[in-house]
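Dear U.,

For the methods section draft, I wanted the exact inputs and outputs in one place so we can describe them consistently. I've listed the two proteins in the order they'll appear in the manuscript figures. Please don't edit the token lines directly; just add comments below if something needs changing.

First protein:
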Amino acid sequence: MHTNWYIYCLIFACVINNSFGEKQVLVKRIQCALKSKVIASVDCSKDNDTSLSFYMKTIHDIVRLYGLSSLYIYITGRKNVVQLKGLRTEFCQSLTERKRPNLLGLINAGLRKAHTNFPQKCPFHSNTRYILEHLQFDSKYLPNYIPEYNFTYIGKFFMNNVLTAEVKVTGGVCNVGNDCR
């Protein structure tokens, strides 16, 4: 009796998992702003619907670079907003560390695959232009069963413990073939 129940549950889980399909992360808009004089400039752009690029010009050596992020998720057909605040990404470590898949893994995997001249360890050297081109978010870190949703990402980036730049990205996560922007 219990074996049949287990088999039915397993079949149901497989059907549900496959029925939602593969996800994709689409970007609608990106904005970035310089907040201090720790760096000379910061620029960001949307390469295409799935890819972003960032550029910064340093003035001083950057011995510490981290981001504090907030993610606001608007699930299609629901009034409530899911808020994930205080997500921390250490850029001096994220290019070399490999951890188990999770939400921050989505960001860290994108950082590792992007075309960049970021150093493998801090410091970021003074008077250098750093690039992070074609940053994409790998949907394999998202479970198939999650619903489609739109999101707003707000990142505050600290260099040498000073708020230096803010980035705002809006977009959506949807099934491949759907346009959820």
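Second protein (the one for the lower panel):
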Amino acid sequence: MASTSARPAMRTVRSAALVIGGTPQVETVVQHRMRPTGRHLPDADTAEWSTAVLGGVPAQTGRCCAGRGPDGLSEGGGGAVADAAGRAPRTAQPRLDAAGVRTTDSGAVEVDQYLRTSRPDIFAVGDVNGGPQFTYIALDDYRIVADQMAGEGKRSTADRVAVPYTLFMTPPLARAGTVETDAILGAALLSVDEQELVNTVAPAIRGGVTAGSLRDAIWTHPSSTEAFNEVLANVVR
């Protein structure tokens, strides 16, 4: 089974969020980092974001902005727009329904935590099963299916805790775990090399390693990782 990208349709939706899934603190920092580049970012209460839609599925990452001021909607808020609409599964052509394989409203193949479809002898891996559209998630899909077919049959998507991801802006914004206004069960990192540092934070979260342990760890010098010593010293007492 495969998925594909096509030219997305564009529609304007009203939203206060620039960073999808971000906290107000992350939103503020990202806007602060972008303003010196000359990009105009409207205030949250007057923002309208043009969201790419492909096959009825809203974009997960890519948004461009236009500010609504006293004189109406002001277009052309940026020098370039990157389409980041994700991929819509191409599941209609194979006639999966004829094989008894159910799909979701968005066209993804319906799977359980072991990636089995409604036909127990058929698995769906990769973007087609509606999971996070990352190469490393597709690789983990393979591990789950391989464990079902030739292993102990215990591995599942439920094992995915604090999965890291990175938004490759300048500097990179990386996240792992859940970062909410009233609960911190993860981390949001915005700095140079955070696409690498988040891979230290994610297993630490999964293993129950405290922020204090990362703060007091001995890291190589010079390295980006040693910044944990200083940064976490200002966060964790």
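Candidate sentences for the figure legend, describing the second protein: Helices lie at 24-34, 135-150, 194-206, 211-216, 227-233. The first helix runs from residue 24 to 34.

Thanks,
Y.
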